[in-house]
Please model this.
Amino acid sequence: MCLGLAVHLPGLTLAAEIGDTERGERLYGKCKGCHQVGANAVDRIGPHLNGIFMRRAAAHEGFAYSKAMVRAGADGLVWDAETLDAYIENPRALVSRTRMSFRGMKDAQDRADLMAYLRTFSDNPANIPEAAPTALPTDHDLDPEILALDGDPEYGEYLASECLTCHKSDGSSDGIPSIIHWPTEDFVVAMHAYKRKLRPHPVMQMMAGRLSNEEIAALAAYFKDLE
Model:
C-alpha cells in the first residue's frame, strides 16, 4: 500500500485522526529490526504487522509465539487501538512474560502516530468493525505512587489464599501461569491492567477489581519471595 494515498482513500482518513502517519513511519524505525510491514512483509524475530488491528493475540499462523502470548490470545486479547496503545507503552502491562524486548514507548503522541501508520496496513480499513475506535487514543499511565507502594508480605500471605486456589505455591504452571518470584513491578502492573480491564481474563478482572492498591502491593511482595 502506498503511504502517500492514506489520507485520500475512503476509510483511511481515520488513520490520520489517530495521529500523523508520516511521523509514525519514522517512529516505526524502532520496530523494523524485528517486525516487517507492508508489501511482501514476512515474519522475522517478531511476526509481521500487516492486518494487526482486530487480530487476536498469537493468531498469526506460522509464527512461534511465546507461551505467554498464546495464553493471552486464549484469554481473549485482541489488538485494537486501546490494547495496542497499552502494549506499545509497556509490553509487560499486558503480557508479563512476552519475549518482546522493547522497553516501551512512553509518549502518548508517539504511540498515536505509530498506530496511525500501522493502521494503514489493516485489510480494507473502510469496512472492518474497528475503523471508528482507532480514532480514540487512550493514555494508560499507571500512577508512579502506586508502583512506589511498599507492600507488606505478611499481609500478602493472608490475602493469597484465594490466589492459591488456582496458582501453585511451588511455582508449577500446569495450564495456569506461575506468579512466584515475579518482580514486584511486573506483578503490580499486571494486576492493575486486569483492574482496568486491559487484560481480558474475566476471572482475573473480577479478582483484581476487588483489591485496593495496598493489597495488590502486599500480594506482589509476598509472591516475590515465596519459597
